[in-house]
Amino acid sequence: MLVGTGLRLWGLADKPLWTDEFATLVFSLGHSFQTVPLDQVISLDALLAPVQQPPTSASQVVTNLLSESNHPPLYFVLTHLWLRLWTGLGGQSTLVVGVRSLSVLFGVLAIPATYGLAWLASRSQRVAHFAAGLMTLSPFAVYLSQEARHYTLPILWILASLALWLQAVRSLQGQRRFTIPEIAAWISINTLGIATHYFFTLTLLAEAIALLVLAIAWRSSLQKSALWRILAAIIGTAAGGAVWLPWLLGAHDSELTRWIYQGDRSGLGWLDPLGQAIAGWITMLYLLPIQAASTIVVIGSALGLVGLAIWTIWLLGSSRSRLVQGLGTATPAQFPSSGQAFVLLVAIAVLIFLGITYGLGMDLTSAFRYNFVYFPAVLVAIAIWVEQSDRPVTRWGLSRPALIMLMAALLGSLTVVTNLGYQKTHRPDRVVDAIYAQAPAQETLVAIAHRTHGQTGRLMAIAWDIQERYPVSATGRPAPQFLLAHQQRPIDAANRLDVVLSDRPRPLQLWLINMQTVPPRRLEAVLDDQTCLPMQDAASVDGYRYQPFECR
Predict the structure, then answer these.
(1) What is the pTM for the complete model shown?
(2) Phi, psi of 42 (to 5 degrees)
(3) Tell me, what's the pLDDT at 329?
(4) Radius of gyration of the chain (CA)
(5) Long-range contacts, 87-96 (Cβ 8 Å, 24+)
C-alpha cells in the first residue's frame, strides 16, 4: 500500500486537466456549465468561473448532475465532501491534487481489497500477495487512480461484489450456505455500484450469466435453496438499480454519448475493436514508453509489449494448474475451482463487451478505461493461474514468473507517472503551447463549436492551462478571450462567428478549435468576408483540431 500510494501520488498535478475531469470538478463543486455564456466573447475568468467559486451543497451537486450529465451522483457527492477539505488551501495545483486524490485513495484501498478477494478465492497467501502486487503495480490501475473520475470507486464495489458472487457460486456447489446477511450485503453493494457508474451493470450481467452457466452445468446436483437465495439477491439488486433507469435510458441517446457510437465498418475496420481490446488487456499488466517523443523508443516499446504479451500467453498456456478444465463436471468432488469460475466470468465479460460493440454499435473497446468492469477479476484469475501451480517458490515468496510479471508491471506504472504512456485523453497543453508560440497580437480569440458541456470543458482546459503556465503577470501578454459558438444546427456556429468577428478590433489572432462539424463552405465564406487568413495548416492533438488565422 505504501508503494501503491507513492506511485499514484507521483506527479499527480503535473498532467493537464481534461474535459471529463472538468466535468467532475464543476459538478462536484455544485456548479453548472450552463452559467458559462454562449455565443458571446467572454474572458478567461468568466470561462473558469464554475471551477473558481466555492462549493455549494451536496443537493445542488445531485440536481445539476442529473439535469446536465448522464452519470449517477454518488462519486460526485463524495468528491464534493472531499473538496471541502481542500477549500482555501492553495491555488490551481492544489485543487488538481484535491480532485484527483480521492481516486488515489480508492485506488490504494483496492490493493488490500484485491488481497482479500484473492485469498477468499484461493485460501493462499502466496496467491493473495501476488494479486495485491498486480493491483499495486498495474499501469492501468495507476492510470485510473490519477484520473479525477469515477473508476477506482466502482473497482472497490466490484471487488466486494465479486467476493459475494464467489460465495454464491460455492453455495450452488453445496460447499456453504448463502446467508441472509450476505444477500443483504450483496444487494447493498450492487446498488451502490450502480449509483457510482452505470457500467457497473455490465459486471452484474457477467456475474448473472456466469451463475446461469454454472447452474446449468451442475443441474444434476444443484442446491435448490441456494438458487432461490441468489434469485432474491438478483431481484433486490434490480429493485435497487431501477431508480436510475430513467436516466440510464436517457443516457443511451444522449448527445454526450454520441462519440462512442461508430458508423458502418468495412474491410479491416471490423478488426479495430479486437485490436483495441487486446491493447487494453495488455496494459492491465504491462506498458512501456509508447508515447515517448523518440520514434525509436516508441517502436522498441511496442515490440517489447508484444514480446511480453506472447511470453504471458505462453506462461498461462503452459501452467500445470489445468485452470480452465472441468467447467462441465457435475459431481461435487470435481466441481471447478474458484480460479476456473473467475476465468469463466472474465470470458463472459469480454463477450459482453464485444457483443455490445459489434451488435449495438457502441464501441466500448475504444476507451480503455471502461475495462474497469472486469479488471479486478482479470488480476485475481491471473494470480490464481500463475501461483496455484507447482512452480518452485523463490526466497521472495513468489514464483520466478510472478516476480518477472511484477517487475514488468513496475516499469509500466513508472511509464504512466512519467507521462510516457496513458497520457491524458485530451492534450490542452499542446494547444496552449501552439498559441503562445505565435507572436502576440492586439487581441487573441479562441473559438470552439459548442454542442454540450464537453466542448465547454475542452475550452476550460485551455484557459486553465494558460492561467497555470502563462499568466499575464509572467508573460506580460493579455490573456486570450473565448467564444463558445453554439450549434443548434451545424451552420449556427459559423453564423455566430461571423457576427462576433464583425465587432472585434483588428488585427485579431483567431484560433478555431474543433470546427469539423461546421459546414466547411460556410466557414470559409465567413473567414473570407472577415479577411481572416490562415497562419498555418490545421493541426491535431488528442481531443483538439486547431488552426490559427490572422484577421485584418
Answers:
(1) 0.93
(2) -130, 160
(3) 41
(4) 26
(5) 87/54, 87/55, 92/464, 92/467, 92/468, 93/13, 93/468, 94/13, 95/25, 95/51, 96/12, 96/13, 96/17, 96/148
